[in-house]
Amino acid sequence: MYESYYGFSERPFQLSPDPRFFFATSHHQRALSYLQYGLDQGEGFIVITGPIGTGKTTIARNLLANIADEKIVAAQLVTTKLSPDELLELIAAEFKITVNGNSKADLLRSIEQFLIGLNQQGKRALLLVDEAQNLPSETIEELRMLSNFQLDNKPLIQSFLLGQEELQDIIAAPNMEQFRQRIIASAHLRPLKVEEVKDYVNHRLAQANCNKEGLFPDDGFQVIFEKTLGVPRKINIFVDRLLLFGFLEELTIIDSDVINEVASEMSVELTGSLNGSALKNSEFSQQLVINSTENVENIKNVLREVEEILEASIQQKVKMTRYIDKLLKQKSREFAKAQSANANDIKQSK
């Protein structure tokens, strides 16, 4: 796609969390430091919360990728809407524990024997639970019970919980007092500030070996911040589209006018529009009465929004068609050049 045009070694703004592209703001570095502190302590729970797209999973991946201690055996859970029994089954599966029997007692016994076996090897288990806001309170309580597995007064397993803001409310419930007392550190991530957006974008470009200086002017970063509200995942989506647009239009500089144009194209295409205007739940939760003038107007507004979405989709298809056409022409030129080179080689050999 646009990688060769801009001289990238790879796409710098992929959505999949990649530890190589980890960018540590002060908040992210603090969260990572808490995780590392928890590792050093070898006990208790660490809780990291933050809005969607602020980098919680990236932090977890970064931690796992940089664990140099061979004494730590780590596993990560990403499917967390689980009952206590399902949680135990998934833990056993992730740690590749052989379970002898079908009862919960058999499952717990097998997990404990595995943890004791690690301890005898001088190792310990680390469990990272992503999207932990989906865990029912009784399942979080099961995690606390697992932390009771000890040998020589040392816990055999640690659990780190990463989740959206709702996780804070779950933990704050009165029946979670015993769990709260096991938390040794917590951190809450926030979106990036405008100056951090510039550093974040430049960092990812550098990681992809960008050889274009001044690809985004300084005033462009302010617009990117305004359109994405500093949320890293939205920045990735937005800047990836900016680079594709720049490639299609053969731009060497992506200025604020271009950024605003692309933002306008994407305003209704993405869930939670980039301009930060959120749909009000009340607009859709109220029961419609057809003979109400107000509700008839609401229906018209919804139809207009649908029309805008369809128009945006058509515009995107047109752009993709242009991109494919351009790519085919580029490949055709490369093929013709290769054919010409082969012909010259044949003539020289004769």
UniProtKB/TrEMBL annotation:
It holds the Pfam family AAA_22. InterPro entries: AAA+_ATPase, AAA_22, ExeA_AAA_ATPase_DNA-bind, P-loop_NTPase, XrtA-assoc_ATPase-like. Gene3D superfamilies: P-loop containing nucleotide triphosphate hydrolases. It comes from the Bacteria. Residues 42-195 form the AAA+ ATPase domain. NCBIfam families: pepcterm_ATPase. This is AAA family ATPase.
